[in-house]
Every structure is written in structure tokens, then in C-alpha cells.
Amino acid sequence: MTTYILKRLGQGLLTVFLTVSTVFVLIRLAPGDPAVSYAGPLATTEQLAKVREQFGLDRPVLEQYWIFLQQLFTGNLGTSYSFQAPAMQVVAERMPYTLTLATASILLTAVVAIPLGVWMARRPDTNRELGVNVLTIAGQSMPDFWTGIMLLTGFAVLIPLFPASGFATWGGLVLPTVTIAILQIALISRMVRREMTSNFAAPYLTVARSRGVGSPALTWRYAMGNSAIPVFTALGTRFAAMLNGVVVVEVVFAWPGVGSLIVRALETRDYPLIQATVLLTALLAVAVQLVIDLAYPLLDPRVRLGKAAAA
Amino acid sequence: MSLSDTATPAASAAQPPRTPSASAVTKELVAKAGATRRRNAAKWKLRIGAVCTLIVIIPILLAQVLPLPDANHQDLSARRLAPLVDGHLFGTDQLGRDLLSRVLHGGQVSLTIGILAVVVSGAIGIILGAAAGYFGGWVDTVVSRVLEAQMSLPLLMMLLLVVALFGPSIPVITFVIAIAQWPEVARLTRSMVLVEREKPYVSAARILGLHRIQILIQHIIPNVIKQATLVVLLLLAQAVLLESALSFLGAGPQRPFATWGRIISDGQDYITTSWWMVTLPGLVIVLMVVGVNLLGDGLRDRPRRKKKGA
């Protein structure tokens, strides 16, 4: 068990390290000069040179990488060009907003998608199910920025029920959450349907039914019990992905999270800020993945983590 | 399910002679059976899907032929006209450009990017997935590790990064979307090749002295490619959505025509006064992506008669 956790932690940290290094290389490969975007288009050559010196951009790339690695292990990624504050601090201040939005969205998704998927699996291909099925396809076909703008217009402008942007009151959480959840519900409920249908067709269920097990127990204890791991994994993976910033929705609703931060950091070529965002979100995503894996034995007593790692 | 499997052949055998058969399976029972319902559902999905897709795709293909104003022609005296006013079916935007024309011409760019991206990602995915499944060993290890690594990367963030840094040209965006999509094809191909590899015809080919690469290309890939291409439609839908998200965030192509996401983000500022500038292009995207998704879904669910007969 401990060996397994250590091994997974090692793998996770390696992934984070590779991600951050890839971003480092990509940024340096790309055309465009961050000094120009920092100092403005009217800056003189001397000013540009000074800016480059200040941020160490005039040094050889390998030396920059070495400095970057040192910063990485001390947890200090330098000062953000545009915020004039430690980059890690800027990202850390935004993180709770993204966390709130992601948690609310995944809870709403789980509460709606699992019963909906089960409902569909219990009456596959009937007319009603076909209707809902087409609706879920529509749900996964709507671009989230468009859904967002439509909800915004409908429920913040025409019928002013909720605030249009930002996170001043809890009401501001509703529209972005619903926007994200529409897509996620469509994806997860279809996945639940798929898992449950294959479990309903499995021989063990026929055996259980012939022994006289009631319908609710068949659905929830037998079929759901065996679908729990894939469904939980899907929910967890989606949650981890959301921590990387629900970029589009955050931009639409001017949500002060990590997603809208990264868009701004990219526009201004704010190297330290880009690096800090990628580092923090990647670390969080890896942590969530690890928690998901550790939860498997709770969902399915047959899973033994240590043995899985050895095999 | 088990009931329907026995019911269908009995019914099809009973129908042609038109003689009263001794079977207890009536037409009503057949119509209610799971397999029949499944086939009907697939049929309806295919029909609705085809209609939705064609409604969008045919005008896009004919955009140059249709009598439409130039998509980039500005007419400041005809700014933000509502739909159906002055012959503008979708109305005009804040610069007096015909919205329908913009949507159709932008759609050509979106579709081109989507199709190219799917072709590229399909090619990469099938080649690498097949190689990983067939050769196993270190090839499999490398491909699988890359797949896993990409799963844990912050995808949209990386795509935005690449486009923001290398410029929103059509090749860059196509490449970026292809990179985002190849894992799905690769994983599917790999799992199918793992099954094919163990079949007798592969051993036979090996005994005949064929080279391993020849076996893979001439014998295994033709057997899996049909199923692999079914995913392509679903990927095309995703590609169109991904491209529109990128161009909404300002990382979309500008030339020759702005694509769908860009048109919507332009119209966002006028949403309270000119609803059509956001709503209509969005509906076009939804209609087309729903259509393509339904087609993909229906094709996947459709019972494959040839295989059952063989």
C-alpha cells in the first residue's frame, strides 16, 4: 500500500515536472518578446534591455532553465510581470474560486446524471428514452460559451434572477455552474447508461433476479455496485480537468478563477504567471487523480492496490 | 436481451411464406423486443442526424454559389439589421456585414479545419495504436506512456498556449486539434489490434512467411479500420466544438473568414440589443454538431447484418 502510494506520487510528480518543462520550452520557442509586452510598444532599446536584464531574459536559455529549476524547488516562480506580485501568490488567490466552481459543478452533475443514466438504462430504446437520449446528445453538442451567453442573457439580463458576472454573492455561482453541468451531465449520464446496460445484460444479474432479488436492489446494489468504479473515475477525471481552469466559462462569466487568469497571462506573455498557473493546476490535478485511485478499494472490496501495482 | 435474440430470426423466417406459422412469437412481440427497438432507435438517430447535418452542410458547401452578399463587405448604413430585414435572412452585424454569409463562409473554414484535424489525428492514432497493439514490448510502453501523460495534461490550457504563442493560422490550429484528439483513436485501435493479433489468419500469414509489417498493413489494419472510422464522426463533432471554443477565446483563424466562435464572441457585446448575432450562429453550430453526433451514434448502434450472416 505505502509502496503503491509512493510509486504513484513519484509518477505524478514526474508528470508535473515534464508538463512544466514542456511549457518552459514552448514559451521560449515561440516568437514574440515578453519584454516588449511588459514595457509597452513605445519603449526604447535601452528600456527593453533593462527589462530583459531585470527578469533574466538576456541570459542563455539553459541558464534560464537552471534558474527556473531552482525556483521550482523553492516554490518561488518569480514576480508576475503584469500583477507586480509573486506569481505563485497571484495564482493561489484565484484557486479557491475555481475550486468552488468545480466542486459545485461536479456535485450538480453527479446528482442529476447518475439517476438520469439509470433511468435511461432501465428502459433502453423506448420512445421516451430515445427522446432523452437525443437531448443528452444535444447537451454535449452545445458549445459551452454559447450556452453560457444564452443563460446569461436569459436569466441575468431579460429576467434578472442572477448576477451576470463575478462572484460577489452566492447567486453568481448558479449560472456558471449550470453552464458547466449541462455538458457534464450529458456526458456522464450517457456513460452511466452504457455501464448499467452492460451490467443489466450480464449473467450474474439474471441469476440474482431468478433468486428473487427485488428490482431496486438489482439496480442500485447489484448493477450500480459494479458500475461504481468507472462512474466514479469519470466524475473524478472531469473534476481534475476542471481544476485546470474551466477556461471558457470563466471568461464568459468574468469568474475570477484560474481559467480567466491563464488567458490574461497568455495575452501579456507573463512567463512567471503562466508557469505558476501550470505548476499549481497540474499539482492539484495529480493529487485528485491519486485520491481517486486510493478510493477504489472503498468502492470495490476486490481491489487491492498493492497487488495491482505489482501486477 | 436473450428473448429478443431468439425472437428476431423466428420472425424473419416466418414472414416470407405468409403461411400461418406455429410460432408463438407474434408481430407485436417482435415489435416490442429489445433488438427491434434498438434497430428503430438507431434508424431514427440516423434520419434525424442526416437531416440536421445536411441542413447545415449543403448551404456551407454552396456558399460561393448562393446569391449572398460578400461576407466581408461592410455597409455602415445597414448596421445591426434584424433577421429578414432588407433581404438579410440572418440580419447584419455591427459593421453591416450579412450574418448568414459570414456564418456560411466561416463554416467553410471551421469544417475544413475539423476535417483536416480528424484526418491527421485518425492517421496518427491508427498508425501508433496499431503499432503499439501489434508489436507490444517497448513500442507499446512508449505509446501507452505518452497517452497517459497527455491525459493528465491541462489540455485546453496547452492548446491555448500553443496557439497564443505560434499564431492562430489554420495549420497551427489543425495541428493542435489533431494532437488533442489522437489518443482516442490510438487507444481504440490498440485494443482492437490486440484482439485481431491472436486470430488464426495472422498465424497463417506468418507461416506463409509474410513480413510483420506486411501482415499489419495488409491484413490487420483492413480488419479494424471500419470500426476505427466510426469514431471519426464523433471526433469531427468534437473538433468543430474545440475549434469554436478556441476562436471564441481569440485563438481562431482570422483569414480568409472569421470562424463561428469568433462571430459569436464579436456579437457578445451586442447581446442585449441584437440577439440574433449570438443566437443564430450558435444554433447553426448546435444543429450541425447534434447532426454529426447522432449520425455517429446511429452508425455505432446499427446492427451489422453482414457480420451476423457470415
Automatic annotation (TrEMBL), chain A:
Q: Give the record's membrane topology.
A: Multi-pass membrane protein
Q: Which CDD domains match?
A: TM_PBP2
Q: Does the keyword Transmembrane apply?
A: yes
Q: Where in the cell is it found?
A: Cell membrane
Record's keyword terms, sorted: Cell membrane, Membrane, Transmembrane, Transmembrane helix, Transport
Give the ABC transmembrane type-1 domain ranges: 95-292
Q: Name one GO cellular component term.
A: plasma membrane
Q: Which InterPro entries match?
A: BPD_transp_1_N (IPR045621), MetI-like (IPR000515), MetI-like_sf (IPR035906)
Gene3D superfamilies named in the record? MetI-like
Q: Which residues cross the membrane?
A: 12-30, 97-121, 142-162, 168-188, 239-258, 278-299
UniProt keyword annotation of Flavoprotein present: no
What's a single GO MF annotation on this record?
Answer: dipeptide transmembrane transporter activity
Family, per entry: Belongs to the binding-protein-dependent transport system permease family.
Protein name (Swiss-Prot/TrEMBL): ABC transporter permease
Per the UniProt record, the source organism is: Arthrobacter globiformis
Its taxonomic path starts at: Bacteria, Bacillati, Actinomycetota, Actinomycetes, Micrococcales
From TrEMBL, chain B:
- Which Pfam families does this entry report, sorted A to Z? BPD_transp_1
Where is each ABC transmembrane type-1 domain found? 107-296
Q: Where are the transmembrane segments?
A: 46-66, 109-135, 155-180, 275-296
User: Where does the record place the region Disordered?
Assistant: 1-24
Q: Gene3D superfamilies from the xrefs?
A: MetI-like (1.10.3720.10)
Q: What membrane topology is annotated for this entry?
A: Multi-pass membrane protein
- Which GO biological process entries does UniProt record here? transmembrane transport
The answer on whether this UniProt entry bears the keyword Transmembrane helix reads yes
Predominant localisation class: membrane
Give the subcellular location: Cell membrane
Q: Which InterPro entries match?
A: BP-dependent_transpt_permease, MetI-like, MetI-like_sf
What keywords tag this UniProt record?
Answer: Cell membrane, Membrane, Transmembrane, Transmembrane helix, Transport
This protein's GO CC annotations = plasma membrane
Tagged with keyword Transport: yes
Q: Spell out the family assignment given in the record's similarity comment.
A: Belongs to the binding-protein-dependent transport system permease family.
Q: What is this protein called?
A: ABC transporter permease
Q: Which organism is it from?
A: Arthrobacter globiformis
